[in-house]
């Protein structure tokens, strides 16, 4: 048996909209620590990792850990029945055949219940290795989203290069060649520390498919900032903190080097 | 000969947009009481009934009653030539071949005239019987519109159940099963009377095609509230009052019972 | 060698969006007086003429006049990388193979550079003859844009008739016939002069393809007013002044007379 409440539907609606274009049927892992989801897109190039911490729920009661399979696009349709400030209750019976989703509006006069059919899915054990990322960049999420969207109209691949002073996005296509260079604005004291910090001393340069980065953009409504984490020969991590409840990370494998612009 | 004026184009524009998806060629019945329209959709499942009262027009001169056939979608295109606060004059000559539509803007410096060709249509005598509706529900029209739109993404059929305390919309599909229950908020004195009023004592439960209900939604811009009227084995009435001038009613035949969720 | 700066990207973005639907590959003529562009649409019915005066640029350095070929749609995609208030620098090397476009944001921390590949195009010498237009009408550009858009849903051709007192747009289709008549509001002193001015004494009536007029509408965001200039058996000129920097003119050949409504 499981029951959990979220005070306001809007965050869950945005989270589900952020992943529905990338993954279709997924397993949710419900444990005493919270709800987790890890799934690869159908081409196995990108990975979505969502963590919702137990402490982010207003109520959270779980007897024993359980994994349930759901259709993300069906859940997204159900979530649209909620008004943004409805309270949401999620529930599972013993041996559940469905996820019970209840929305109650503020005035307590409108109650929506939907029993979403569960799916039986192979569980993928994805095992994301702990990585020592040599480069971490914070950007305004709206600016990142707009940048990726416009680059995607110009070409297929972007090369991201980070140094201690800037991050540079480069592209090359039959339209021409170009780059966008953004100074990284660290607080002064962090800059002094940087000499001791191997993370910020190692420039990284890697190329990625813009199509996937553009799909990650849906999550820019979840947070004002986005963190890009890179290391050589390692997938890029695009991370959005979700206030008070958890985080949504996208992993994207780099393109092999001979695709990159010079 | 006929001539009638409406002080502001915006209402007529909205009315015509509200019916253009449902009916194409229709007869307008112009009498000393006003302008009326009754038409079935092409599949003969839904019926539109529009009444514009003579007293809602700023001028209204008619020699003798007349029925004219028009193309709703062509009239909608002509209406788009009007600015929202233009004054509209409708006119018919003796033995008319066209409906003369004139828009004059407030500053009296822009005058648009369009002579819309008339059509010769078989006149359907639809004969809507007077029905004693056992259930009448008022809802916020925006909320009703949003609800129907979202349900329509989840399944084809909704079952509507009304009791003295609530109205409940239920659905069942391969996504799962669900319902939305809304308390009916009657003023206290009306509730006391209710015991004497057979209307509010008889629960009704019937199923309807969401596709049509969703087409009625266009009219939600005409009024802040919508009235649902039901009785057993009788078409649902979805009624929008149009301030100062009339009302727009949609009738929708129920689905046969074995389609309904349990 | 050429380098020119514009203080704010938004005007250039709007200009390029205003012509991209009409012309694809064009020559830019860069002289000491400014940047000019003249190009016909692929069906050779409409002509675009853009003039950006040298004094409208915050910097403008040119060694010797040069003509370069560019893809308008590719330039439009590149311009989307700019924020509206970015400063733009355009640059050409000696014997250039590309147009260097640099955007710098206000805070000077984001720099975008794109080297747009140049095209080798046949240069068309279009030679627009000096015409004594017998009719000049100023209209609100938004109102003109809305009018043309709505007429375009009703038919293919509009007949424009100008007199000293009004401009009238007429149409005829199987939907019906109609016209929009707008009084021309000249300042009083101009009206007195009019008796001496042959321009305003000669009514003009000509028919035009709405499809093209509708493509000119994109430019209505460049200026609050639009000037229509007509003379018998001469292309219509639809002119938008672009504040502080230049003007954009569209020329449209009239339809032959037997297409016009009576």
How many strands, what sense, and barrel or not for the largest sheet of chain A? Answer: 8 strands, antiparallel
Low-confidence stretches of chain A: 187-199
CATH class membership of the largest domain in chain A: Alpha Beta
Total beta strand runs of chain A = 17
What class do helices, strands and sheet pairing of chain A give? alpha+beta
Total separate domains of chain A: 2
Q: Kindly report the average pLDDT value of chain A.
A: 90
The helix/strand order of chain A is: EHEEEEEHEEEEHEEEHEHEEE
Give the overall form of chain A. elongated
Rg value of chain A: 20 Å
Tell me which protein chains meet in the greatest interface and how many residues each side has.
Answer: A-B, 16 and 16 residues
Strand order of the largest sheet of chain A: 6-2-3-4-17-16-15-10
What name is given to the CATH topology of the largest domain in chain A? Proliferating Cell Nuclear Antigen
Oligomer: homotrimer
Determine the strand fraction of chain A and express it as a percent band: 35-45%
Main location (chains A, B, C): nucleus
GO biological process, one term (chains A, B, C): translesion synthesis
Subcellular location (chains A, B, C): Nucleus
GO molecular function, one term (chains A, B, C): DNA polymerase processivity factor activity
